[in-house]
Specification:
The complex is a heterodimer of chains A (about 280) and B (about 160). Helix content of chain A is about 35%, strand content about 25%. Chain A is of the alpha+beta class and about 280 residues long. The chains are: A alpha+beta (about 280), B alpha+beta (about 160). The structure holds flavin-adenine dinucleotide and FE2/S2 (inorganic) cluster (2 copies).
Chain lengths: ~280, ~160
């Protein structure tokens, strides 16, 4: 399979990349790991005339943790997220999620920026970012702006990112407490049939903070605000787990496809979410 | 669109190719550089038959444009061993019957090589998880896993002797 032809550019700094994207406009796309973009170019679902490769921009590849805040450069790969001990200490749910993405080859290439900017409901990082209440930093011709992950996703492949903006960094607070990313898939290397990210903070027997988000159960990731609130201010028990799951299931809109009929996905989602909540509480 | 010159370091040798930007690395390796160890199984990023090592990472070369690999160090199965001097992994695949048709084998061994570089002491679980991006339609994986574990053992003993 051969993609359409394009002109290849490799800027070496972020300002250079932003200027190039502004100049070339709609005909250009940035390429990060290429593991979503190249397959879609082979299918001619994407036919950019210019590709701006971000691999030469060193400032986009880093993990910084200070003052309780984590900052991850967009070009950091899934393999690098998994390997970072410092990141594991500050946000262990990232490693747990990244290990469930695709296969080793894909994880060496796929970047966190590409995963969250792509807008494919099948990607695992977007729901995780909503669960973490992360912020995305976007750089465009008019400078920098910050958008919350919970407000970024509009529809499948439509996000708040303007075509002329480059996502440079992801920021979120360090998270202590219980965590789980549960994912039901047909086999290793597959996108989720249903997946759930859960963070729970335990204060004595009380759950002082809860956050739940879901992957691939609608045309965007879903932050479940009501379900999260149901686990807060009290213990986590069978009763409020069931209530939270019922609330979250009222939010999902799965569709029939080769991963199964919508009814089956709803069933799978309710089990994945309930067990992720139990796992997170047990680790809290 | 015009072709451009790409220089790569393949199996320790600096080589040049003329390619359009859209040419995939696997096509440039096989068709221009006549390095036919890496195979094309699916061309859709799923099977791992095209796996090569790029700067210390296992990569599906059907999912990288050759221009993206400009200046990088690439190792294919040809760089690991040859018929006169097999790599330990190749020997163990032969000994443990880790291949039948052989189509997946170059990608499988290239991946296993990187896995053992990163984790010289893998459990069976580590091996299965680590080669999950490589499909084999013949063997049922059992003997591939045995071969990789046996190679790990031998490489460790080699180190103790040295
Ligand atoms: C076999 C296979 C299985 C997979 N399984 C999973 C899975 O289970 N879960 C999962 O989450 N993913 C999966 N993926 C996708 C993989 O994780 C991708 O690598 C990831 O979705 C995109 O990251 P990338 O760096 O490859 O981005 P690219 O493919 O380079 O880019 C994707 C899109 O994002 C845009 N983009 C990239 N970076 C930026 C940026 N910094 N700023 C603005 N726009 C940007 C590009 O223009 C493009 O439109 C799978 C891929 C394959 C091939
Ligand atoms: S040919 Fe590249 S993954 Fe199958
Ligand atoms: S030996 Fe035939 S595909 Fe693996």
């Amino acid at each position: 399979m051969i993609t359409g032809n394009f002109e290849y550019h490799q800027p070496s700094s972020l300002p250079e990349a932003v200027a190039l994207l502004s100049k070339l406009g709609d005909d250009a796309r940035v390429i990060a790991g290429g593991h979503s973009l190249i397959p879609s170019m082979k299918l001619r679902l994407a036919m950019p005339e210019h590709l701006i490769d971000l691999q030469g921009i060193g400032e986009l590849k880093n993990i910084q943790i200070s003052g309780g805040e984590v900052r991850i450069g967009a070009m950091t790969t899934q393999a690098e997220l998994i390997a970072s001990e410092a990141l594991y200490k500050s946000a262990p749910i990232i490693r747990e999620t990244a290990l469930q993405i695709a296969d080793p080859q894909v994880r060496y290439m796929g970047t966190i920026g590409g995963n969250v900017a792509n807008g494919d409901p099948g990607n695992d990082m977007p729901a995780l970012m909503q669960c973490l209440d992360a912020n995305f930093v976007l750089q465009g011709p008019d400078g920098e702006r910050v958008v919350k992950a919970r407000e970024f996703y509009e529809a499948a492949y439509f996000t708040a990112r303007d075509d002329l903006e480059i996502l440079s960094e992801i920021r979120f607070s360090e998270c202590s407490g219980g965590f789980a990313y549960g994912k039901q898939k047909r086999k290793i290397g597959d996108y989720a049939t249903a997946a759930a990210a859960v963070l729970l903070t335990k204060d004595g027997n009380n759950c002082s903070h809860a956050s739940i988000a879901l992957t691939n159960l609608a045309d965007t990731p879903l932050y479940c605000e009501e379900a999260s609130a149901m686990l807060q201010n009290g213990g986590v028990n069978d009763e409020n787990i069931a209530a939270a799951v019922t609330s979250a299931m009222a939010q999902i809109e799965p569709v029939d496809d080769n991963r199964g009929p919508a009814e089956f996905k709803k069933h799978a989602a309710s089990i994945v979410l309930a067990s992720a909540i139990r796992d997170a509480w047990a680790r809290a | 669109m015009s072709k451009q010159t790409i220089t790569l370091n393949v199996n320790g040798k600096s080589v040049a190719a003329e390619a359009e930007s859209r040419e995939l690395l696997i096509h440039v390796l096989r068709e221009q550089l006549e390095i036919t160890g890496p195979h094309i199984g699916c061309e859709t990023s799923h099977c791992g038959a095209c796996t090569v090592d790029i700067d210390g990472m296992s990569v599906k070369s059907c999912t990288v444009f050759a221009v993206q690999a400009q200046g990088k160090e690439i190792t294919t199965i040809e760089g690991l061993g040859n018929p006169d001097k097999l790599h330990v992994l190749q020997e163990k695949f032969r000994e443990h019957h880790g291949l039948q048709c052989g189509y997946c084998t170059p990608g499988m061994i290239t991946r296993a090589h990187r896995l053992l570089e990163e984790n010289p002491n893998p459990t069976e679980e580590d091996v299965r998880f680590g080669i999950a991006g490589n499909l084999c339609r013949c063997t049922g994986y059992q003997n591939i896993v045995k071969a990789v574990l046996a190679a790990a053992e031998e490489l460790k003993q080699g180190e103790n002797v040295a």
